[in-house]
Amino acid sequence: MGYENLKVEIAGGIATVTVDRPKALNALNSQTLREVAAVAAELEANPAVRALILTGGGEKAFVAGADISEMAGFTSEQGRAFSAVGHKAFAALEALPFPTIAAINGFALGGGLELALACDLLYASEKAKLGFPEASLAVIPGFGGTQRLTRLVGKQRAKELVLTGDRIDAAKAREYGLLLEVLPADQLMAHCRAVAERILKNGPVAVAQGKRLIEQGADLDLGAANALEQQAFGVMFGTRDQKEGMEAFLAKRPASYEGR
Ligand code: DAK
């Protein structure tokens, strides 16, 4: 499928999606949000894709936020509709059955940071700057940011970031638990690919189930979450890959997985 504001490359089981509107620092307008939802559906339907890396085009930004020039004249109703488009896109991304990695190569502000937070694993270059400046524009994060941020860094830190609008550097974001690692700019993509390749070696159904359990379980009480895990553990023993993985271990040979 062709996209106006996204570039998509698929190689070796890894899709790399680049949000590419460098003239607006990759800001998310409605068209781009709809394309994010569409690319998530397209990649999910493509059996050749088993991991996604999301990054920003140009030298300066991952994504500098929702598109302020589009939002400036919104009515309340248009604001709600815009938020719904963003929520739908980010939920589609979050629900992908394979790992998603944000390679934060520059500014990740507002809606851009919300986009990264909808990914499973967040890595950034040393020059990245992150923050939620919405309150300085007299709005709030509108694509799930207040909730996903809070689940990652806790209520107090989330309040500090959302209420001050402070822009923080990558080192501080890592200290807060927002990022896994901070890399020199020229090593960021290679690092993200290496992480994806390590995951690709594992059983695809196990990877999908591990992701789903952590996502869904985090919003349940411990008893209900553990019950989900028990059920999924049983399901794994109905897969060919489980037999292959354990037989390969016992035969001291590498496993070869089929994803079923
Ligand atoms: N939207 C539109 N255009 C943007 C943009 C953005 N978010 N960020 C940058 N640009 C544009 C600039 O206007 C400029 O365009 P021209 O003037 O060249 O036409 C071009 O990108 C280059 O930007 P600068 O010239 O400003 O570049 P600098 O290096 O000087 O500064 C910067 C980089 C990232 C510090 C600066 O551009 C900046 O502060 N950008 C805005 C960052 C920001 O405030 N982001 C948060 C946006 S608010 C909701 C749904 C969603 C949201 C809220 C509510 N509901 C519906 C309820 C989410 C809100 C946001 O994300």
Descriptive report:
The protein is an alpha/beta fold. The protein has 2 domains: 6-200, 2-enoyl-CoA Hydratase, Chain A, domain 1; 204-251, Lyase 2-enoyl-coa Hydratase, Chain  A, domain 2. It contains 11 helices and 10 strands. The protein has helices at 30-44, 68-71, 76-94, 111-117, 145-153, 155-164, 170-175, 188-200, 204-217, 222-236, 240-250; strands at residues 6-11, 14-19, 51-56, 61-63, 100-104, 107-109, 121-125, 129-131, 167-169, 181-183. It has a 6-stranded mixed beta sheet, sandwiched between helices. It has a 4-stranded mixed beta sheet with strand order 4-6-8-9. α5 (145-153) crosses α6. The longest helix is centred in the N-terminal third of the chain and has 19 residues, at 76-94. The chain is globular, with a radius of gyration of 19 Å. The structure holds 4-(N,N-dimethylamino)cinnamoyl-COA. 4-(N,N-dimethylamino)cinnamoyl-COA binds next to α2, α3 and β6.
